[in-house]
Amino acid sequence: MAAGPKPVSASRLALSQVMTPLDANVSGNVHGGNIMKLADEAAGVVAIRHSGGNVVTATVDRFDFHAPVYVGNLVTVKASLNYVGRTSMEIGVRVEAEDLRTGKKTHTNSCYITMVAIDANGRPVEVPRLILETDEDRRRNRAAILRVQERKKGK
């Protein structure tokens, strides 16, 4: 049985990391897979905080690249719960790259990642309900409900 309801603010995350040559391809652009990994890690932290247990990635909706990320950029990944089902959680993720010399921030990616809470045997388990605290939380939740319905139609 899931614990009591938890607010969106209890699991929200901002994760920042400077991109190094180890993150880049030969052109000096950061590998898209590295950005995707950071987004998945951030979503996982949010989901673990909310569920209080292990989680796995179930879906990633549209990971479009709007702008490149370069070596030396500070990448910040912001992740927040949008929706909670019985065992699943949709996390909205926004990625920004900052040129540390100029302070210019560029929105590079956004996506929705669905995580499922699992027990020690890898079976789905119930998660706490979500408390929507702000108008923004409620707006994001309404939009997420529509996405969840669309995902279910696609199965």
Report, as a whole number of angstroms, the end-to-end distance: 27 Å
Main beta sheet:
5 strands, antiparallel
**Number of helices, where a helix is a run of at least 4 consecutive DSSP H or I residues:** 2
Radius of gyration: 16 Å
Molecular structure report:
The protein has 155 residues and is of the alpha+beta class. The protein has a single domain (6-154), classed as Thiol Ester Dehydrase, Chain A (Roll), CATH 3.10.129.10. It is built from 2 helices and 7 strands. Strands 2-4-5-6-3 form a 5-stranded antiparallel sheet. The chain is elongated, with a radius of gyration of 16 Å. The model has no long low-confidence stretch (mean pLDDT 95).
Brief descriptors of the model:
155 residues, alpha+beta, Thiol Ester Dehydrase, Chain A, 5-stranded antiparallel beta sheet, two-stranded parallel sheet, 2 helices, elongated
